Amino acid sequence: MLYGDFQGLRLSRLGMGNMRLPVRNTRQDGPIHRAEAQKMIDHALAGGINYYDTAYVYHNGESEEFLGDALARHPRESYYLATKYILFSGVDYKAIFAEQRRRLKTDCIDFYLIHAIMDSNYKQYLDSGCIDYFLEQKEKGAIRFLGFSNHASPDVLARFADHHAWDFAQIQLNAYDWILGSAKQEHAILYERGIPIMVMEPVRGGKLATLSPKALAIIEKAARPDWSPASWAFRWIRRFPGIQVIISGMSTIAQIEENVALFSSEASLGDEEQELLFAACRAFHEEVRVACTECRYCCGECPARINIPEILKVYNHYQTDGAWALNEMKGVTSESKTSDCTACSACTARCPQGIDIAPIMAELTDLLSN
Q1: What is the pLDDT of residues 349-360, one digit of tens each?
Q2: N or C terminus: which one in the chain shows less Cβ crowding within 10 Å?
Q3: What is the enclosing helix (H) or strand (E) of 133?
């Protein structure tokens, strides 16, 4: 495992995200399959991963509690914990912080983040008093390092980054968002300010790990049969300075083994390989209309309890494969149908990708009724 120095700490270059752990049913927001997830944590630690990222809302609040139990079997000095406070939880930040330390079974949270900064909420974060409170907790030793995770525009990111001397920041960084989103600008903003970067969504919610036949054919030109699409994504990120930890939301032991092996060497993409990857991302973009990362932030606010990410997945298949793909709706587990959408837009307000979901629900309702 590759490691880097972070203010005296030896951090694994690969971090484990705990938002996509195995669950006990077909719904991705179901209860965590704790026995399987425990095996994953044990395997990750044995492979040298020592950075574990979670949040108050992951797995409907179960992720922190599970992670606290799972890691308690191991020496506290063998891992570092990262978790987050999110504004839309509706709970006072002081109460949340106390609960998080209880869930994680620790007096000190190593890396604490203001969660999901967006253009629509950053002023609320600045005015809420939470940042001053967490800075106080850092002074008291309850937080070791304070940072934030960004889903805002570059202009807002720059303003938030200049609030005070942040210890680190977390951004969505991958080849797709570098050429088709704002990742290039976000990296520059943080790097120019000397703010260490934690990377989230390195394979864009798994999308860059699968790609499409057309996109795969492009990177296969490089004659790298032993490279998986996911490994292309990870190798690409290594080209850039200022990166501290690359967090992967792994959900199987096989994924852990592949990534641990990949992070045993410094190999990165060359310029020609980068251009091939960019071409593959552009081809993929042409084929996939809705760039959902399945983070499920939208689901908790949906009054109809619609399984939005799974329905958007069917919609993408419809866009690329035709009307027959709508038959996949029969296999979607959801409390309500697309026709139950009230177009309240609560989902879009919570979506880090800014997807306008209600019109898609309406379009699918019309398609399915014909």
Answers
A1: 989 888 999 999
A2: C
A3: helix 130-140
Per the structure block, which two tokens stand in for 362?
A: 């309406």
Q: Which long-range contacts (CB under 8 A, 24 or more apart) does 225-233 make?
A: 228/258, 229/203, 230/203, 230/258, 230/259, 231/258, 231/262, 232/175, 232/208, 232/269, 232/273, 232/277, 233/174, 233/175, 233/202, 233/203, 233/204, 233/208, 233/209, 233/277
Burial of 127 (0-12, 13-18, 19+ CB in 10 A): exposed
CB 177 within 8 A of CB 282: no
Residues 305 and 341: their CA atoms lie apart, in Å, by: 9
The beta strands (E) that lie in 215-305 are given as: 243-248
> CB under 8 Å to 225, separation ≥6 — which residues?
none
DSSP 78: G
Q: What are phi and psi of 356, to 5 degrees?
A: -85, 95
Domain extents for the chain?
3-210+240-263, 299-369
User: Looking up tokens 């891992």, which residue turns up?
Assistant: 79
b/e per residue 327-345 (b: at least 16 CB within 10 A): ebbeebebeebbeebeeee
* Cβ 170 vs Cβ 147: under 8 Å: yes
DSSP summary character for residue 228: -
CATH code for 3-210+240-263? 3.20.20.100
Mind listing the pLDDT tens digit for each residue in 235-256?
999 999 999 999 999 999 999 9
| Structural contact between residues 105 and 83, judged by C-beta atoms closer than 8 angstroms | no
Amino acid at 319: Q
Count of CB atoms situated within 10 Å of the CB of 326? 17
Kindly tell me if the per-residue pLDDT of 169 is higher than 70. Answer: yes
**Residue 108 is encoded by which pair of tokens?**
């000190």
